[in-house]
Amino acid sequence: MTEQQAAETTRRWARFHFRRMPHVKGSLEYLGTNKQERIERVDTFEQVVTRLNDLLGDPNHTPPAYADVNQLRNDMNGKRIPSLATIMDSPEMADAVNRTFEFGKGDFPSWADAAMRSPTMPAMGVFLEGFGYFLGTYIHGEQSNQALATKGAFVRGFEEVLLVEHPNHRYWMMSSIG
Questions:
Q1: What is the number of domains present in the chain?
Q2: How many Å apart are CA 121 and CA 41, to the nearest integer?
């Protein structure tokens, strides 16, 4: 499965789980009908995850602006962040993604179903938070405090790399709509 195929499968699953949250559902549908935007979002996500893995593997060359990347390194216990395609190719991991969406429906903040200037922001925010939660449970087990801490470190570390190295892709975050 390619990264794009994995992203499309994940988008369809998320659309099902968030069908009662109109802005998230609409945002996911927007990405479904706007292939170029979806491709760009997946490519950016994979570039940031690749960079995070590079930073996690080399603590001596982590810029000071990436404080949460250092926290993520500690939380990951020497493991790498899996790619979306790797996750979706594994039935066990794919099942964990579905459980993550179930957990997320009650846990995501109110911004996930608020009107946004960017039609992709609700979907990308839910995806980022959900991936962080998946990563935390993948490393530490279901719904543990450490899993939630890892989720937070992943999201903040992702945003650090995104802001510094991909400043034109701020549509992932609330602060980009001003």
A1: 1
A2: 11
